From TrEMBL, chain A:
Residues 360-377 have a biased composition (Acidic residues). This is Elongator complex protein 5. CDD domains: Elp5. Belongs to the ELP5 family. Residues 357-377 are annotated as: Disordered. Coiled coil: none annotated. It is found in: Cytoplasm; Nucleus. GO terms for biological process: tRNA wobble uridine modification. Keywords: Cytoplasm, Nucleus, tRNA processing. It holds the Pfam family Elong_Iki1. Pathway: tRNA modification; 5-methoxycarbonylmethyl-2-thiouridine-tRNA biosynthesis.
TrEMBL record, chain B:
It holds the Pfam family ELP6. Signal peptide: none annotated. Transmembrane segments: none annotated. One of its GO terms (cellular component) is elongator holoenzyme complex. It comes from Gossypium darwinii (Darwin's cotton). Pathway: tRNA modification; 5-methoxycarbonylmethyl-2-thiouridine-tRNA biosynthesis. GO terms for biological process: tRNA wobble uridine modification. Belongs to the ELP6 family. This is Elongator complex protein 6.
């Protein structure tokens, strides 16, 4: 399913149509959007390098992470960055987004470091993130620098839209993204969003702008305000490594396709697997204690074989309950075997028994009467 | 003796083995606490570990909460002399208790406010030999008071924190912050608070026990270490000279 997303971005835009746009959104309960974003980015870039995608270049607009993070990421995936300079460019909105360093350098309180320009061949520093128009122009310029003018397309990755929304109103950001989608040289565009940092309507606006919405949810919802007991901690631990990945595709024919997978976060990266059945999930939730909470197969059968000492077994037959006054032998003969008949004989390694000795003969047999009825309160 | 009892916390943070080069380099550590369970002891512990004689760490302490004398007194009980560390240029104390950012856009000037503070931190680190840069820890106590000093502008504080984070990429130093969860709990959407959770590479939460107050246990710590993909939870008790950390049921 993550494959489908990468394929959609790879295939890109049709002539005269808006470019496909992907929102990857998460929340603090399952903060894996960055891992998914990195996965999609490295997959898309590999296709670009291999010439298998519509787009011929990738512009990464990086607000939350330094350009070296992305370069290292791609290097770790085996991409030779040095030779792919002409296929990736990073607009560095991380190092000095508001121009503070420039201002400080101006007042002589500051010495810029020379190693800041280490990645200058692949990254351009952008200092005016409050100005959406300038940002737009810089991105288009970078992209055209990669693929030239004309009909060749490039893709854009934005990390993350949250920072943009801090610096500009949602209407400007929406217009910015919309303009990018309509540009005829943009093949595909995707961005990262932390949904709990914004009002619901802001998230909704961005979802409307996307043709694919990928959301990450925790495997298990934690009860609010109930932090701190052992069970909750094992849920937290579970949620820190796994999550649910839901994707909603808006297709060209108007149909909407919804798919779900499970994601596993490992040190080496992210893995997508199909959702397991409910039982398997619950198995993992049993707290780790020193005594066994599970039933073995034999124990389960024995448990099923126990005839409970209720008056009504629910099968229409009246039952004589051993009430502790008759002899054991008589009691056994009168115990109905109706409930046990259906058990497979080859597994009848011993039916369960409930042995009950009445305290004294004075007590009346158990009845349906409420013993508290005679209380005079 | 101190090392032994705080071992669980050190283990969760990767500080139990070698501390040179500083294991927290390049990382953002966010400590969250509540009124019932103050997380300052984690801050003091990290400060003490960073100023350990076994390391050449330099700490830049940005104090919005207490004056130097307060930390000096506490660290002395933990066996660390802040005055001599300050004299040896291993400890830089920036007293921000009187910082009041000018209102409105005038706050965004290089002369005053948080921009100047960022400039000062940058200058202090740049002045050190390059080899020491990754051994620098920036500690901020605490973020909610920084917000107060910035006249409630959480955006401005977030901008400042972003620039502090760029310091961790630029110099490979570490950034340690303290914030109070219950201040933001009444908001529908505690954006500022949640933003720190996203920024943090290591999140340390100090919370009361689910079962309430106890004499032997002051609270519980949950350490989420994203870099190691590990979550730990244990109880703690803050004593006069030491903090004891232990798994539930084993005090």
């Amino acid at each position: 399913m993550a494959e489908s997303i990468c394929r959609a971005l790879r295939d890109g835009a049709l002539e005269g149509e808006l470019a496909p746009a992907l929102t990857i959104k998460d929340s603090v309960a399952s903060p894996f959007a960055l891992q998914v974003f990195s996965h999609v980015l490295s997959q898309l870039f590999s296709s670009i390098l291999a010439g298998k995608s519509q787009s011929r270049g990738l512009v990464v607009v990086s607000f939350s992470r330094s350009p070296s993070f992305y370069l290292d990421l791609l290097k770790n995936k085996g991409t030779d960055i040095a030779s792919s300079n002409n296929q990736i460019q990073i607009l560095d909105c991380y190092s000095d987004p508001l121009g503070w360093k420039d201002q400080l350098a101006g007042s002589r309180n500051f010495t810029a470091l020379s190693n800041e320009v280490l990645v200058s061949s692949t990254a351009i520093v952008f200092r005016e993130v409050k100005h959406m128009d300038k940002l737009y122009n810089s991105i288009i310029e970078l992209g055209k620098g990669l693929v030239g003018g004309g009909k060749i397309r490039f893709s854009i990755a934005i990390d993350s839209v949250d920072e943009m929304l801090r610096h500009a109103p949602v209407s400007s950001v929406a217009r910015f993204l919309s303009n990018l989608r309509s540009h005829d040289q943009i093949s595909s565009i995707f961005w990262l969003l932390h949904s709990d940092l914004h009002e619901a309507r802001v998230t909704a606006v961005l979802e409307y702008l996307s043709s694919i919405v990928a959301s990450l949810e925790p495997s298990h919802q934690l009860a609010n305000g109930q932090r701190g007991d052992l069970e909750n901690f094992s849920l937290i631990k579970h949620n820190s490594k796994k999550g649910k990945f839901h994707v909603r595709f808006k297709k060209r024919n108007g149909r909407v396709r919804v798919m779900s997978e499970e994601v596993h976060i490992e040190l080496s990266g992210i893995n997508f697997t199909s959702l397991p059945s409910e039982g398997a999930i619950n198995q993992g939730l049993v707290p780790k204690v020193q005594f066994s909470l599970q039933l073995s197969e034999k124990e389960r059968i024995d448990k099923a074989n126990v005839v409970l000492p209720f008056e009504h077994q629910g099968n229409g037959k009246p039952i004589q309950i051993y009430d502790g006054r008759r002899s054991l032998v008589d009691g056994k003969h009168e115990r109905p075997f109706a409930a046990v008949e259906n058990v497979q004989t080859n597994e009848n390694c011993g039916s369960g028994e409930i042995i009950y000795y009445r305290d004294s003969d004075d007590e009346m047999p158990d009845s349906d009467e409420d013993p508290d009825d005679d209380l005079d309160i | 003796m101190n090392q032994r009892s705080s071992n669980l916390l050190d283990e969760a943070l990767g500080l139990d083995e070698v501390i040179e080069p500083w294991p927290l380099r390049g990382q953002v550590v966010a400590i969250e606490d509540q009124v019932e369970t103050s997380g300052s002891f984690v801050l003091h512990h990290l400060l003490k570990r960073s100023l350990s004689p076994n390391s050449s760490n330099v700490t830049i302490f940005i104090a919005f909460s207490q004056p130097f004398s307060h930390y000096d007194r506490i660290l002395r009980k933990l066996g660390c002399n802040l005055v001599s560390q300050r004299d040896n240029s291993r400890f830089f104390f920036f007293d921000m208790l009187k910082l009041q950012c000018p209102d409105g856009d005038e706050g965004i000037t290089p002369e005053g406010g948080l921009i100047a503070l960022y400039g000062k931190i940058h200058k202090t680190i740049s002045a050190l030999p390059e080899i020491s840069w990754k051994n620098v820890s920036i500690i901020i106590d605490d973020l909610s008071l920084m917000e107060v000093a910035a006249n409630g502008s959480s955006d401005y504080v977030l901008d400042f924190l972003h620039y502090c984070r760029t310091l961790t990429s630029e110099f490979d130093c570490s950034l340690i912050t303290l914030n109070h969860e219950d201040i933001y709990s009444s908001e529908d959407r505690p954006t500022f608070f949640i933003q720190m959770e996203y920024l943090a590479d290591i999140l340390i939460k100090a919370e009361p026990l689910a079962t309430g107050l106890a004499t032997d246990v002051h609270g519980q710590l949950t350490v989420s270490n994203k870099g190691r993909n590990k979550v730990s939870n244990f109880h703690f008790k803050v004593k006069e000279n030491v903090v004891e950390c232990f798994y539930p049921g084993r005090s």
